[in-house]
Amino acid sequence: MKCQKCGANNANTHVKTIINGEYREYDLCSECAHKMGYTNVFADMENDFSNLLGSFFTNVLPARTQATRCEFCGSTYAEIAKTGQVGCANCYQLFADQLYPSIRRIHGNTTHCGKNSGKGENKEQKPAEKTRAEQVADLKKELDTAIKEQNFEHAAELRDKIKEMEGEA
């Protein structure tokens, strides 16, 4: 399909507009689309995002005098710092001394903990055991609730448990 504006180039951009309630569609070549102000919004966002990530990797450590390249993907640390994208898994090992401080600063850790890592929780920490007096007070509250709900069987069990705990004291 040819560009509807110039008619010379192949159309690779499809534009839909609604202006003053009037719906129109255009098939344009990239040059005409750019002249009309239609740019690839997602490409611009990707560049902005890469620049943002890249800014975290700059000025971490002095640049290496000789550019070391990854033997698998060919990336250099300068390219990773500029784009914010690590080339391959081998790059993490090759550029570890430069990447890990930035990764630690960005994510707070250099090892993957999973989606539900329990961050902020201490799973090993157990709540302090209640004293006997606190346990008896809780049982008395539960007893009052059972009586109000007319659950007398449960109330009798709670009464006996309270007497047993108070007798041990």
Identify low-pLDDT runs.
61-65
Strand/helix succession: EEHHHHHHH
Label the structural class.
mainly alpha
Helical content band:
40-55%
Alpha plus pi helix count: 7
**Mean pLDDT over all positions:** 77
- The backbone outline, from C-alpha atoms, is elongated
Strand content is: 5-15%
Largest sheet: 2 strands, antiparallel
From the N-terminal CA to the C-terminal CA, the straight-line distance is: 92 Å
| Count of strand segments | 2
Strand order across the largest sheet: 1-2
Radius of gyration: 34 Å
Which labels suit this protein?
single chain; 169 residues; elongated
Could you give a short description of this structure?
By secondary structure, the protein is mainly α.
Structural summary, described in words:
This protein has 169 residues and is mainly alpha-helical. Helices cover 49% and strands 8% of the residues. The chain contains seven helices and two strands; from the N terminus they run ββααααααα. The chain has helices spanning 30-35, 41-57, 77-83, 89-94, 96-107, 132-148, 152-168; strands at 13-19, 22-28. A two-stranded antiparallel ribbon has the order 1-2. Helix 2 packs across helix 3 and helix 6 (132-148) packs antiparallel against helix 7 (152-168). The longest helix is centred in the first third of the chain and has 17 residues, at 41-57. The chain is elongated, with a radius of gyration of 34 Å. It starts with 12 loop residues before the first strand and ends with a helix. The model is unreliable at 61-65 (pLDDT under 50).
